[in-house]
Specification:
With about 575 residues, this protein is of the alpha/beta class. Helix content is about 50%, strand content about 10%. Among the domains are: about 5-85, Arginyl tRNA synthetase N-terminal domain (Gyrase A, domain 2), CATH 3.30.1360.70; about 115-160 and about 255-355, 3-Layer(aba) Sandwich (Rossmann fold); about 165-250, no CATH class. The chain has helices at about 5-15, 45-50, 55-60, 90-95, 135-150, 165-175, 190-200, 205-220, 220-245, 265-275, 305-320, 335-345, 385-400, 405-425, 440, 450-465, 480-490, 490-500, 505-525, 535-555; strands at about 25-30, 40, 70-75, 80-85, 115-120, 150-155, 275-280, 285, 295-300, 325-330, 355-360, 365, 435. A four-stranded antiparallel β-sheet has the order 1-2-4-3. A four-stranded parallel β-sheet has the order 6-5-10-11, sandwiched between helices. Helix 10 packs across helix 11 (about 305-320) and helix 18 runs antiparallel to helix 19.
Length: about 575
Amino acid sequence: MKIKSQLTKIIEQALLDANIEAKNIVISDATKPEFGDYQFNGVMRLAKILKKNPREISNTVIEHIDTTDMIAKVEVAGPGFINIWLNNHWLSQEANSIIDDKRVGVGYVETQKKIVVDYSGPNMAKQMHVGHLRSSIIGDTLATLFEFLGNEVIRQNHIGDWGTQFGMLIAYLEEQNTDGNSQELKDLEQFYKDAKVRFDQSEEFANKAREYVVKIQSGDEHCLRLWQSFINASLGHCEEVYEKLNVNLTRDDVRAESFYNNQLIKVIETLREKNISTTSNGAECVFLDGDETPIIVQKGDGGFLYATTDLSALTFRDKELNADRICYVVDARQAQHFKQVFTIAKQAGMVREDVALEHIGFGTMMDKGGKPFKTRDGGTVKLVDLLNEAVVRAKKTIKDRDIHSQEELDVVAKAIGIGAVKYADLSISRESNYIFSWDKMLSFEGNTSLYMQYAYARIQSILRKHNAEITGNIIIGDEIEHRLTLMLLKFEDTLTKASIDATPHSITAYLYDVVTLFMKFYELNPILKEGIDEETKMSRLQLATLTGEVIKKGLDILGIDVVAKI
């Protein structure tokens, strides 16, 4: 339900009827119920242009606002704000129209875009660790959101599978006489450490590893076969994590560094042809205005760097995938790198001018001491271990509640545990660092996944107790029902803004508002209490049902499962 766009048209018409010329009308959510449902705050800007008193302008405008359908009343407040209250009958009609809608009132974008989302990006030399969590979760949520709104989404998992370390690893694979699919690779971390020990201790092994790097890059069949075995085993570890996380990445989405290897020299040729790069101290460099340090795209020994691969990837995504928007969900510390790469790509014509290039940066997950999350001995926390622990802790949290069978407990514990980890991450502004806290994320109170899942389960319990067909319409009877219904109808506006700004936390904030309002509604307006007339009971049941569907759909976009009982 695009409420804001409808209100914008009404205000635009009122301004036109009042002979006031205005552009870029912005309707805002009211900050408090007493200020209405929405506000138009643009009168102050108009007052400066027209050189008139803002309250005088506002009073003129509200005389022309149509209050026969959508709007119940308007008032001028403060220095000239226009407060807007929506009509209960209109809200009821709109809510009733989406009760049986699988999309709960959310339409599709007017113009479909092809959006590439680059996220997760594990290195094939090691198992995924907590450093990959935010990229995987935020990226997958955005990709799902873009798809839900009707865009064509191309997921890209830009894995690190190329470079000098792989010569060491395949040399060790060969020395261990393994095909890359056996027990030796069960623990990638240990395998990497063992290979590194051999590399450091044996000059003969180190020389062999360096030779293998050259052989891999030159296409040697034997070395490539060992390299591919290692990549397959590594991807198997990643897929285990993606399955646990409920992240929609498959091998078809993998676009590894090696994929662009043959195209890197073309990047250099293009930059030279466009007079964008220059040779400096034997290296090919790009000097950008305002940057003292050049961007090296080819080293003096002929080797390429991350910037070269990223420029090749941008060219592919523009020319081959025909993307309209390219999103890189990568650590915020890479902001300067992507700013430089995007500038070079546009200057060199590698990407069309109208293609949106976005670095969707995010902060770091911290421990209680405010330091990057590590194991007790200072090592990197494997992501699969963190997720397994989340399920174990969730099971302890709910084991004494309304879960009967062991099978049921296992299913619910997984939904709650994984949901807790994901929601805790997504509920924070992605650009911020956040403190990882098991107690907070597995709490039944506050803005947590468990609070959302519990509200959904409570609604399902109400529906089970009713145990009969729900008929009739939503009829708004008081202020809390007005506010809850309005909030449910804001779902589309919320998702639209989240997709434009790439801000998953605005979805979690919305869900928290929905659940908080529902809990107040549930407390103040009993649904199944004896003595309530049938029309009122059915109205409240419909409102509860719609609330449940919005919660479920919102969590689904976040990649979090709901449960029928907790």
